[in-house]
Amino acid sequence: MNESFSLKDFYFYLAVIALLTIALFFYNPVLGTTGAIFLAFTASYAYSNVKKYNSRFKDHFTNLHKDFEKITERTIFSMPFPLVVTDEKGSIVWHNSLFADIFDADVLKGKSLSAYVEDLAGEDKALKPIENGTTVEIKEVPYRAFNTHVEFQRGGKEDALSLFYFVDHSQYKHMEKLYEDNAGVVLIVEVDNFDEVVDAAPTSQKPLLIAEIDHRINEYFRSKGALVRKFQEDMYLVVMRKSDMEVILEQKFDILDEIREIDAGTSATVTISAGVSRPGLPFTEAYKEADTCLDVALGRGGDQVALRSDDTYTYFGGKSKAVEKRNKVKARVLGIALRQLIDKSPRVFVMGHKNADMDAIGAAVGVMRAVSNQEKEGYIVLGDVNPSIEVLVKVMKRDEPELYKRIITGERAEELIRQRDLVILVDNHKPSFTEHPPLLERTANVVVIDHHRRGGEFVSNPLLSYVEPYASSTCELITEMLTYMYDDTELTNFEANALMSGVVVDTKNFTFKTGVRTFEAASVLKRAGADMSQVRFFFEDDYDTIVSRAEVVHNARIIFDNIAISKLAEDMPNSVLVSAQAADELLGIHGVKASFVLNKKKDVIHISGRSFGDISVQLILEQLGGGGHLNMAGAQVKSDDIDEVEQQLVEAISDYLEKEKGEKEA
Questions:
Q1: Is the pLDDT of residue 1 over 50?
Q2: Is the pTM of this model over 0.90?
Q3: Between β-strands 632-638 and 627-628, what pairing exists: parallel, antiparallel or unpaired?
């Protein structure tokens, strides 16, 4: 800033006086001479005062600069936080005592700053550029680092210095952690089989059983500092701090084990499920999220906790088989709702999963019966007909030609579908596993009917969701819904056989995952004309399939003492079917508790997993993006290297067993 004056600032006034002086010469030479003398005096006086003012002005700023330097120097030396000055190479030129005190040293001059503050070190150990406010750690204490860089010339050479100062950030970090620890978390807890357990208990023990369940849940969460309120006879609302929730997470929600230990007075076991929200959400939003998580936990079979974390779910428990529920109200309500949705829709598209099996195609046939009863236009979306359903489709073409004409490809369905049409997913709830995923983007009207345990991937905002992992098959669910939708289901013999085949394949001829309602559904289908000899015909294998299955079983190896694993490297038309059948047969080996068979299909590796229930094949295959049930699950891994996927599977099994071992020891 330049505030000095010069004679040029007075040129205008001097010029005016000069012009007046000249005019006076013409009028009166004496007055003109006097004016000239006055002009010279004025110019001399102005010059003298300008020089004097500039001198005083210069002295003032010189003194001010010196004073400012003293103030700056005194301020720097008295700064209440560590300061360091470094040269271009990052060596310490000067530091204050507070910086030296951190390292219990008197003088650190000449040493590299990056050696003391590692967060400032680059790849070559030199100081790296930082943004002001960057958090660094010095002696495990967080500081915010600020830097000022000055370039100048010294002795004709370019030079530079950097000033670093560090503001203690530990108090802020403490407050931040305190805020995070006190963030609210909402849980909704439900007793899975409350009605069944209480109804089965002896009359004299029912009040004691209800009181015991209530006491265990209340005592557990209150001991963790939570607020617990029972808002239904089998449901509880829990509000707690994040820090208290972390204690429960470390204990892996051992409340699940405590509840299972309750003596119900019968062979039934009491189990609970819970949904947990993310911390820090507004309470109304947290409640909705906890409710959604509870639906996920129940959709996976109950006896577990689903916790939302970012865009995924974390699960605890889920090691017991889903308990069959005798309450059929849900099936009736959803059956009537489905009938109404079909009525309102111009067209209905029924779609299963890729590489459809008997349960998927049988369920689709059952839904098409409901569509036909409502006299609506409907289609079954099906890609390539694989060997597992080939016989059924051939029989459909022969016995039900009109229904066969309703089978279309995903591409054709995409051409036909309109925004108001309805898509019904059967035997699958994962969009990426459907026959034609783009179909779900063409309409918001989607219904999900499935019996697999719910995974993290799910259809967004379905109109209806009927996911019941207790059921033996989706065909069982469809059959049950049809009985509530119509007094007379009007099932043809073929349709009854198709639905029965879905039940048979998923229950392994009524020996696996079979409940009371499974036999009730089978009796409905039998009365509708299902013929078990015809159903058996659907499952007949050709010679090559039997030989391939035997080869897979022969090549199996036992890992971790009781798990059989094998693979079918050859890409065969029926490789998925062979793998599933081989996995079933491997369970027949004495001492084998779980089996896995891999097979290659184009650029996808399919994995079939089976177990007797002691080992959760679902939890294992979920690590590879799959899912299913505790004792029956599958996965599809995008890869053309079956050996690499086999290694990933072995690692997933190892991780699962390690976690199981750790939980038992704890």
A1: no
A2: no
A3: antiparallel
